[in-house]
Design goal:
Structural class: alpha/beta
CATH topology of the largest domain: TIM Barrel
Distance between the termini: 23 Å
Number of helices: 10
CATH superfamily of the largest domain: Aldolase class I
Shape: elongated
Strand order of the largest sheet: 6-11-10-9-8-7
CATH architecture of the largest domain: Alpha-Beta Barrel
InterPro entries: Aldolase_TIM, NadC/ModD, Nicotinate_pribotase-like_C, Quinolinate_PRibosylTase_N_sf, Quinolinate_PRibosylTrfase_C, Quinolinate_PRibosylTrfase_N
Family: Belongs to the NadC/ModD family.
Number of domains: 2
Radius of gyration: 24 Å
Catalytic activity: nicotinate beta-D-ribonucleotide + CO2 + diphosphate = quinolinate + 5-phospho-alpha-D-ribose 1-diphosphate + 2 H(+)
Order of helices and strands: HEEHEEEHEHEHHEHEHEHEHE
Number of strands: 12
CATH class of the largest domain: Alpha Beta
Helix content: 40-55%
GO cellular component, one term: cytoplasm
Strand content: 15-25%
Organism: Desulfosporosinus metallidurans
Length: about 270
């Protein structure tokens, strides 16, 4: 007989109700997964708060009933299904609020391991951030595409051959030439969104100045990325970007704190 089975032997004919409650403010995410796990454990799910619920300390996000072993296993598994996603959703919402009215996207979710990718992707959406640079079909030319083509002009030109009307997004690092020169070449080749991905505000300022001076500011969207932190969002927004790509400041968010407490039992 296993230890847990031995300990719960006197309780085998009893069932217990419990609640998972938040211990801090935030935004709930991971609801689909926590509900699925609860059912897999054999619990009778009584209530589950909706995805995206605004959380305050003490608020119940799930109430359920089961035997002693089920309740113990619930404590081991259910809070893990909502802790990290809720932390990410909360961080995303904070970044979106601080960056308003500039659009925030979080493309780094694609770098997450497969096991957690779906939950964290949903958490970013729940927090109000976008997953894509544009809602219309586009070709994304990252730094490696541009390196392999020997420069942004050839890379954008090849993308345009596939579909002249499709939006092209170019990730700019200023590697083959200065960042402003690279931006100009990208626009001349037909790019519609330029993402200055150096994390250096002076680089973005320079590209913005060129866009205004050359007359293509209104026809091309400008994005900024590169280790963006929540603390520098105000400075970035002041520069006038159309899009800010935020990765680790959202995805590295700490777990939101929840607790599971037995609140009743019967024979």
């Amino acid at each position: 007989m296993e230890l847990r089975e031995f300990l719960f032997e006197p309780l085998k004919d009893r069932s217990y109700s419990f609640a998972i409650r938040t211990r801090e403010n935030g935004i709930l995410s991971g609801v689909a997964r926590v509900n699925e796990l609860a059912i897999d454990l054999g619990l009778e799910v009584i209530s589950v708060a909706p995805e995206g619920s605004l959380l305050i300390p003490g608020m119940a996000v799930l109430t359920a009933r089961g035997d002693a072993e089920m309740v113990t296993r619930a404590e081991e598994t259910l809070m893990g299904a909502i802790g990290k996603p809720s932390g990410v959703a909360t961080a995303a919402a904070d970044v979106v609020k601080k960056a308003s009215p500039v659009k925030v996207v979080c493309g780094a979710w694609k770098k997450i391991g497969q096991a957690a990718k779906g939950e964290l992707r949903q958490a970013v959406i729940t927090g109000g951030a976008g997953l894509r640079m544009s809602e219309q079909p586009f070709v994304y030319l990252d730094k490696n595409y541009i390196r392999m083509f020997g420069g942004v002009t050839a890379a954008v030109a090849q993308a345009k051959l596939f579909d002249p009307d499709r939006l092209v997004v170019a990730q700019l690092r200023g590697e083959a030439q200065g960042i402003v020169e690279e931006a100009r070449y990208a626009v001349q080749a037909g790019a519609g969104i330029l993402m200055v991905d150096t994390g250096i505000l002076e680089d973005f300022k320079a590209v913005m100045s060129a866009a205004v001076a050359d007359g293509w500011r209104k026809s091309v969207q400008l994005a900024f990325a590169g280790g963006v932190s929540a603390e520098e969002l105000a400075d970035i927004v002041a520069l006038g970007p159309d899009i800010i790509d935020v990765g680790r400041a959202i995805l590295d968010a700490p777990l939101l704190d929840f607790s599971l407490d037995v609140e009743g039992g019967d024979r």
